[in-house]
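User: tokens in, sequence out, please.
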């Protein structure tokens, strides 16, 4: 059976050859390799043509630049394989990735298979494992172990396992994607893969996990994730509202309310850091934008809920260390609220003693 591997490409000449060498060298040979050149201005298209002459399994789609979501959707529409996978042009994969994942997804008759990955940086390689004990996850496991941990932390004390929502660690049934018309959202510039995976997992009743570390995610300092983004707050709010609507439609928004709240707090902190530490404007202008974010009405509402939630749950903490970390986190939250909130801290001081 055939696996269709979709690779969106935009100005990727620096890394593309390494990526394609690892794809065409897969031990599983029944591949359809769809290269979607999204209006590159460098030599990416020439590299694609070179590899097409080298490997007849390669299909090139050359199109105008419309963004990664449209590029991936274009690849899905062109795919003919039983399964669909995605690879980013600046990453690379282990030789047995798709042979092993295909065996797993066929063995357990799932619509989605996950694997582990490594985060490769100039400082070293970091192994990122899905911290679940089962090889196959049922619906409730999918919600509690995958969706919840993709959305955000359980509470403001970071004692959870984060699941990166990237699509490149997955193998999908093409029939499943088409049945529920699962496609990437156009009009959002960040976390489009997270939105896609949350939607897919909501419809999925069974997921299998392959514990191999097959995918090498390259942390690229020049990528949009690691450079100043003047629209970060706007784009994050847009994605958050979209996720909230998706969960609401699945009757999961209140069940995962604290995860959503934790996410909102985290993205506000990141957006403030983006302005203060990465922005090029004068300091007073950067501070003005940061204050605008901090004074967001929904953020204040979320912070209020987060304080109540964590005060109520302090009694379940099992160690003095956890209580001390929780107390520090709460004080940091209170820093962003008015002085009257300190009364709440005083009222609960007995609960938060280390």
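Assistant: Sequence out:
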């Amino acid at each position: 059976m055939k696996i269709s591997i979709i690779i969106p490409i935009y100005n990727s000449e620096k890394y593309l050859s390494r990526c394609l060498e690892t794809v065409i060298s897969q031990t599983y040979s029944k591949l359809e390799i769809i290269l979607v050149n999204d209006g590159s201005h460098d030599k990416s298209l020439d590299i694609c043509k070179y590899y097409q002459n080298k490997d007849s399994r390669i299909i090139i789609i050359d199109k105008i630049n419309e963004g990664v979501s449209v590029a991936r959707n274009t690849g899905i529409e062109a795919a003919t394989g039983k399964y669909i996978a995605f690879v980013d042009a600046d990453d690379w994969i282990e030789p047995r990735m798709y042979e092993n994942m295909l065996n797993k997804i066929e063995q357990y008759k799932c619509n989605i298979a996950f694997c582990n990955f490594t985060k490769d940086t100039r400082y070293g390689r970091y192994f990122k494992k899905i911290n679940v004990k089962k090889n196959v996850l049922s619906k409730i496991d999918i919600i509690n172990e995958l969706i919840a941990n993709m959305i955000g932390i359980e509470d403001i004390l970071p004692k959870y396992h984060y699941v990166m929502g990237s699509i490149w660690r997955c193998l999908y049934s093409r029939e499943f994607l088409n049945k529920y018309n699962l496609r990437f959202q156009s009009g959002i510039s960040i976390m489009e893969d997270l939105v896609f995976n949350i939607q897919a997992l909501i419809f999925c009743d069974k997921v299998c996990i392959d514990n191999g570390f097959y995918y090498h995610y390259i942390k690229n300092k020049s990528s949009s994730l690691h450079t100043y983004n003047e629209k970060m707050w706007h784009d994050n709010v847009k994605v958050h509202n979209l996720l909230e609507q998706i969960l609401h439609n699945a009757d999961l928004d209140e069940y995962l309310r604290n995860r959503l709240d934790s996410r909102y707090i985290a993205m506000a902190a990141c957006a403030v850091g983006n302005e203060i530490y990465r922005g090029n404007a004068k300091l007073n202008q950067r501070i003005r934008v940061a204050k605008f974010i901090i004074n967001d009405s929904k953020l204040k509402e979320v912070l209020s809920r987060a304080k109540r939630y964590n005060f109520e749950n302090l009694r379940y903490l099992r160690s003095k260390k956890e209580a001390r970390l929780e107390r520090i986190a709460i004080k940091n939250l209170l820093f962003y609220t008015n002085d009257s909130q300190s009364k709440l801290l005083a009222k609960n001081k007995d609960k938060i003693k280390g």
